[in-house]
Amino acid sequence: MRPIPFAVPFADPAGSPIRELFPYLSRPGMISLAGGYPSAGLFDQAGLQDASLRALARPGASLQYSATEGLPALREALQQLSAARGVHCASEELIVTTGSQQAFDLLVRVLIEPGDAVYVESPTYPATLQALKLAQARIVQVPADEQGLQVDALEALLADTPPARRPKLLYTVPNFSNPGGTLLPAARREALVQLAIRHGFLIVEDDPYGALDFGAGTPATLFETARALAPARNPVLYLSSLSKTVAPALRIGWMVAPPEVLRRCAIAKQTADLCTSSLAQAIAAEYLAGGSADAAIAAMRAEYGRRMRHMVGALRERLGSRVTFVEPAGGMFVWLRTAPSIDPQRLFEAAVEAGVLFVPGRAFFAAEADPHCMRLTYAAPDVPQISEGVARLAQAFDRAGR
Do 359 and 400 meet the contact criterion of CB atoms below 8 Å apart? Predict the structure, then answer.
């Protein structure tokens, strides 16, 4: 490998701790309970194929550059989709992004300077931590419990923090969080919004999993809650994505935010990719307009609920008191805490030897990681794979506990 010819002061972004597990996936017979992928067998391939043909039949538009803010047809469809979730917005308050991860990255680029405080629920989504570390933000962890972000702890933290060191942003996934699978109750949502209004910070509400509830539904979004409490001072920036409910390969996300925020985000997006793929946008617009999306998502929701119940039952049967967890009411993940007697590194090594993969909990903390945690997914593996995967995990626990 040829070295660069002179010294360069590189930035030092951390790699994705989840993608670092990819080499293990190539091992023959490996069962992955790790990656947060939707089930490939549940994609509405026929509906997406029809939408693709309709998009390509339109003269040239889907193959050309498009406006940075997004194709009008898709923006309208996403406005309607957002409104169904209680997120009502004007067209100038919504921008299409290349996945919701880009939406968050754009917000960090236009709002955060080195040393600015950003609060995150802990544990949290690793790519959020990556973006914040690259921006040299000062990351402050707010603990989460079985109901999500602990708003009381946040209130105490804010009370003990001088105004100059309080956050610009707080990041949370209130609906079936990654990795915790938690659902933030309505009372906590209202209290969180009140804190944001009182202390003058913005809330980034990331909502990729909200449509994947298992029957109980979800409380009003933070965006809707804030709009009811303070319509002229709504502090919530809403992000979502089609990656978990339609297809990740489309790379369609969106953000709802005040126009002055979106104007700056559009400029930042122009320096990154000019516009999200016009073809992907056109396919997504046709698909959402085609009428099959609701049924496909309902089928996905039902199947994920079935797989979740099977995994939870298998964990209780095979692992018993060696783990604790809360049965999720939606989403894609189960967050386990192991007994202190289990060595985390030995458990991971034993699991790989047994042919099953999970994500160690340290991936989801900015600092002071809880080593006795792990994330499993029931979305991508089918029921037989879940059964075998949990059986192999039990073998790994037997080895790690010796």
Answer: no
| Span between the terminal Cα atoms of the chain, in Å | 44
* Token couple for 266: 């559009």
Identify any residues that bridge with 205 across adjacent strands, giving them in sequence order: 172, 238
Decide if 139 contacts 120 (C-beta within 8 A).
yes
- Quick check: 25 and 282 in contact, CB under 8 A? no
Predicted model pTM:
0.95
Give the model's pLDDT for residue 375.
97
At 6 the pLDDT is: 60
**Cβ-Cβ contacts under 8 Å for 117 (sequence gap 6 or more):** 137, 138, 140, 165, 166, 167, 168
Mean pLDDT per 10-residue interval, the chain, length 402 residues? 62 65 85 94 97 90 92 96 95 96 98 98 97 97 98 98 96 98 98 97 98 95 97 95 98 97 98 97 97 96 98 97 96 96 94 96 93 96 98 96 66
CA-atom Rg of the chain in angstroms = 21
Q: Phi, psi at residue 75, to the nearest 5°?
A: -60, -40
Q: Are strands 252-256 and 94-98 parallel, antiparallel or unpaired?
A: antiparallel
Give the phi and the psi of residue 63 in degrees, each rounded to 5.
-105, 5
Please, which residues have CB within 8 angstroms of residue 337's CB and are 6 or more apart in sequence? 323, 324, 325, 370, 372, 373
Please identify which residue in the block is written with the tokens 């997914």. 377
In the DSSP assignment, the letter for residue 362 is G
SS (H, E, C) 76-119: HHHHHHHHHCCCCCCHHHEEEEEHHHHHHHHHHHHHCCCCCEEE
CA atoms of 279 and 62, how far apart (whole Å): 5
What contacts 280, CB < 8 A, 6 or more positions away?
250, 251, 252
Beta bridge partners of 336: 374
Q: How far is CA 201 from CA 160, 196, 239, in A?
A: 16, 5, 17
Name the β-bridge partners of 374. 336, 360
